[in-house]
Design a protein that fits this description.
By secondary structure, the protein is of the alpha/beta class. The structure holds 3-methyl-2-oxobutanoic acid.
Length: 277
Amino acid sequence: MSAQPKPDNAASPRPPVTLTKLMAMKQAREKLVMLTCYDASFAALMDQCGVDILLVGDSLGMVVAGYDSTLPVTMEQMVYHTECVVRGAKRPWIVADMPFGSYQKNMEQAYANASRFLSAGAHMVKVEGGQWLIPTIEFLATRDIPVCGHLGLTPQSVHALGGYRVQGKTEEAAQRLQKEALALENAGARLLVLEAIPQTLGTATSAALKIPTIGIGAGPSCDGQVLVMHDLLGVYPGKKARFVKNFMEGATSIEAAFTNYVNAVKRLEFPAPEHCF
Ligand code: KIV
């Protein structure tokens, strides 16, 4: 008999995840589980393990292509990996990261590139940034392109931020982030990733918004959690970030590690205090 752990929702029928479902999960206080994914095989396995949202992250530039930041990632690379993930997954909601330089120029550029991701099978696109992105998000949302925002440590701004540093630490920075989160929601964003911020700010921002927040180093009160797949599997060069947990420790397979992550997020066991700022 298999000793594999089972996702908590394994026995129930699992229709495809929709935006309505994600909103209902927030209202029901059921945690959303997101993982980065870059190919069809892992997409199928994550689907089977009960992951709700697959993020085709531009982190693939670092963990797949070996660049030292996400900045060199191209539209062609992102569209190719989105198509791979779409072929592997049936149930999860699929978010494609818009790479650096593909949405910053103007709204028309953002629309042209975002529509390529929806044509490739993604359900939503993700963009990094605050106030300056409001007109772009409005432009996409009014044209029925679901948008996920990303605030806090935004890796495409690594040089402007002076490195991969925790954000929102001062009262002023925290207030600015909260204001921007509300502005993104008002502009039409339907999901928001919060990366590397104090957990008190993750809690306050999640409570202030109607749309779900997904934290990565933003504390356990976010409506969901995301990890980079390679981090979860303990495959990363260099120093492990504080918010990372290696779910391969104590697991007998990759499938078990994914399932343990899903269950840990749903049961509010991850992130623990040692993963928070
Ligand atoms: O590209 C990515 O993997 C991301 C996550 C870190 C949220 O944006």
